[in-house]
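Possible regression after last week's pipeline update?

I re-ran a chain I had predicted before the update to compare outputs. Posting the input and the new output here so someone can diff against the archived version. Not blocking, just want to make sure nothing changed silently.
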Amino acid sequence: MPTVSRFYGITIYFYHTDHTPPHFHAVYGEFEASFVIKTCEILDGAVPPRVRRLIKEWAEMHQEELMENWQRARIKQEMLPIAPLE
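New output (post-update):
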């Protein structure tokens, strides 16, 4: 699972050749969820509400980079790092 960012105990990653819609995965402790890039809403899984807000805030700031990494993952290219939420 290629990791693109880490912040506040949250790890953001993609799977190569993942299914549509374009999305990314987030892990926080024992919680895991996937988020639709375009809407920043949860596609599958669950994370605590505070973590969900942090991920959504971060994703809204980095939508272009997330889409670029989604496209790179689809063709099995190396992921580009994305700045963490500070």
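Follow-up from reviewer: compared with the archived run. The chain has one domain: 3-74. Marking as no regression found.
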